Amino acid sequence: MRAALEAGCTAWNGGLFYGSVDGENSLTLLNRYFAKYPEDAEKIVLNIKGCTTGAPSFLLDSSPEGVRKDVTLARSLLGDKGFIHQFEPARKDPNVEIEVIVKAIDEHVKAGEIGGVALSEINAASIRRASKVVKVSAVEIELSLWNTDPLENGIAQACAELDIPIFAYCRLLSSPFSLLSPLSPPSPPSIPDGSASVFSVFC
Predict the structure, then answer these.
(1) In whole angstroms, what is the distance from residue 134 CA to residue 56 CA?
(2) CATH of region 2-198, choose from 3.20.20.100, 3.30.2010.10, 3.40.50.300, 3.30.360.10
């Protein structure tokens, strides 16, 4: 992590559900890192995802109470040496309107508990709707040589028009570095039941 920072990688991304079954996750790792290198906390922008239970069920909860619970948990796990600059739901909860979700996150921004509202794996229409009620600080999407959909489905255009930075990532599964087929994703029968893949990516 320090080598990445020294190489100029200052946009860091994590999640409450990125981790092992023993309770370790992105936030606990960052807690230990900032305990050792507290001076680095001011050198990075930290984006954290929540509002899902994670594996194996990946149940979504972006209700105001779900947002409050996960913002509180994320801050507690990170500790007082770090700061969450952007908090986002991992996916759009189909049971909660996007305006309700981002307003709930924005309450924690106004309280000074986090720095901004971000979105993840969401479509252009939802980005535009969210931007009408709060300032969206970032949109995290899969964008790479192997997935250029956001350049064609209106997401990149919406972000450009609204001056929203894109937090782009590439899954190893969909790249030539995959241990599976280097040219195609696994067929539906090979995807385990309960996988996050059952959720719509852009909603």
Answers:
(1) 32
(2) 3.20.20.100
Q: What is the CA radius of gyration of the chain?
A: 17
Burial class (CB in 10 A: 0-12, 13-18, 19+), 149: middle
- 5-16 confidence digits (pLDDT tens): 999 999 999 999
H or E segment to which residue 158 belongs: helix 155-161
E-state strands within the chain: 11-15, 45-50, 86-89, 117-120, 136-142, 166-169
**Does the annotation mark 18 as catalytic?**
yes
Query: Across residues 54-58, what is the average pLDDT?
Result: 72
Contact 127, 102 (CB under 8 A): no
Report DSSP state, residue 192: P
Q: Pick the catalytic residue from 18, 33, 37, 169.
A: 18
pTM of the model: 0.83
pLDDT at 195 over 50: no
Please state, in angstroms and as integers, the Cα–Cα distance from residue 43 to each residue in 37, 40, 108, following that order.
11, 5, 22
